[in-house]
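Box 3.1. Reading complex inputs
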Amino acid sequence: MLRTEEMLLNVGPQHPSTHGVLRLVVKIDGERIVEVEPVIGYLHRGTEKLAEDLNYTQIIPYTDRMDYLSAMTNNYALVHAVEKMMGLEIPERADYLRVIVMELNRIASHLVWMGTYLLDIGAMSPFLYAFRDREQILSLFNELCGARLTYNYMRVGGVKWDAPPGWIEKADAFVDYLLPQMDEYHGLITGNEIFVRRTKGIGIVSQELAIQYALSGANLRVSGSDWDLRKKEPYSLYDRFQFDVPVGKNGDLYDKYLCRMQEIVESLKIVKQAIDQFPEKGTIMGKVPRVLRVPEGEIYTGIESPRGELGCHIVSKGKDKPWRLKFRRPSFYNLQILPTLLVGESISNLVAILGGIDIVLGEVDC
Amino acid sequence: MNPVLVMGPILLLFVVLGFVTMAILFERKVIGWIQMRPGPNRVGPWGILQTVADVLKLLIKEDIIPSKADKPLFKLAPAIAFIPAFAVLAVIPFTESLQFSQFAVGILYYLAVSSITIIGILMGGWASNNKYALLGAMRSAAQMISYEIPLVMSVVGIILSVGSLNLVEIVEAQKQVWFIFPQFLGFAVFFIASLSELNRTPFDLPEAESELVAGYHVEYTGFRFAFFMLSEYVYVFAMASLTTVLFLGGWNAPFGLTMIPGIVWFVLKFLLIVFSLFWIRATMPRVRVDQLMEFAWKVLLPVALFNILLTAVLQEVPYLDFLYRL
């Protein structure tokens, strides 16, 4: 018998497939993974501590930089918590704009996930196709608020900018464009034998395990649970729209892919309905005091970000600044299951399983 | 010594090198078109000098040898990977007259010499003293050795039909029917195995950038790195030429269109093969390493063996033997 040794492999923080500065200390025996330890914190900026010295409007740009692939939902998580605490009324037009940009941002985020995931698995073209379509969403946002990635769009009580003339029509045209485009993606990827063999039956998460690890978003729904905060605890205007919550059967990577692809379609449905119901006239800012003083107390609100439950916990002492601000970042919670999923797998599944979780390091480290 | 005999091969070598640089540009252009980008278009008209610029850039890069590397092996590895890539070109007949040397066991020579490259890759991965490089080189060795067997087996059908290992005679035997038709199974196995031999998508695991960063050449820089990449492209050239010779009738004209010279037909067929390689690269994801091995041993090899049996049996069938006994 040959004497074999376990090898310590350092994956990251500079590695093309860890989607940012995640570091994995992997112990491998041949090609089999024996132990994994994720090391995080390379992108930690102390957002939560910084927020204690900022008033509420000033915190909004910091939230952009957490989950930089869906900054709109991050904006919303904060302003939603503040509004709920202050009991503010939001003008309808502003609420519709918020829903439209949040859902468009969800589509953009899922497109990036799909593209980069296929890139991880070795297919190059889907990445460029996904970015071509995401680019249109970014242009829409650029026209709306002047930024492509860090929007700083929402304010406590409404949104900063009204939709410019013709913007709603453009968004509508984009929805009509992307729906048939999904068939192209399915034709290119979904039936591909190599892709199916690389993802089917890999990285299976049972419903029980998913709940134990507090997974949320597609990572939870893939195991069969239909937990979606937009349906279960509707916030904003989500109770006005007809949409389904896609769930998986087997809890494997292939189901995760199908789930997220279907979520794009559902989001498109929501955008379409929101555009149809969009009020012609109206203000975009509610009546808010000049200095936002949040009444003393604390609140936790959760919303459904593309990655899962994005929670915002504010503890206020009645000042214009939070006494303590805490974000429940879905990527951070979803990442915890990684060692459990990876042990015993082959090293060639490492990137596929890691990519399937869909983490954004800006959010993990916050 | 006859100056033609000396200068001819050297000229041909330059033609091949020029073609390789064009092939690299062609690949980037084709993949660019498929992905709705223009591809390289800055250096020279239509980006024609892009590869030249890339090679020049690599030439002037600092040559880094890791301090813990095995220096002699590290320096030797690119050469060992590179030399066989050019050596195999010697037996490829481009037309009846245009070839380096006519060799009685041409196909055997090609298969034998091309497998030397794997030693260079393994040496490079080992000498780098880098875990990613070692994993990449190990995978590469396992992959190339396992795919060489179906590759060789798929050619046996042709050799049975022709009764010769000489590539010129194999082309001559395809005057009536190209071997892609009677030897379709052989062609399928050969094409898939050659994709794997060339380390191309969907079998580009040795340099799978997502898992192994860059595979066996992760520690190489400058011109040594260029040698590895160049040898890969020369192999694309050689393998596409070999496929043309073995299965697409080499310089033989289809439909009796003999007024177009043979070299044009050869280049057209060759380009078709090269284009499909690029096309596949732009479309396919990457196979996982264990599935790769499974595929070689459990699918390709039995199919190739069945093809040999089929060819041997069909040779004895009246009316069909004109396809199989040439």
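In summary: Chain A touches chain B at residues 7, 9, 15-17, 31, 118-125, 128-129, 132, 188, 192, 194-195, 197-198, 346-351 (CB under 8 Å).
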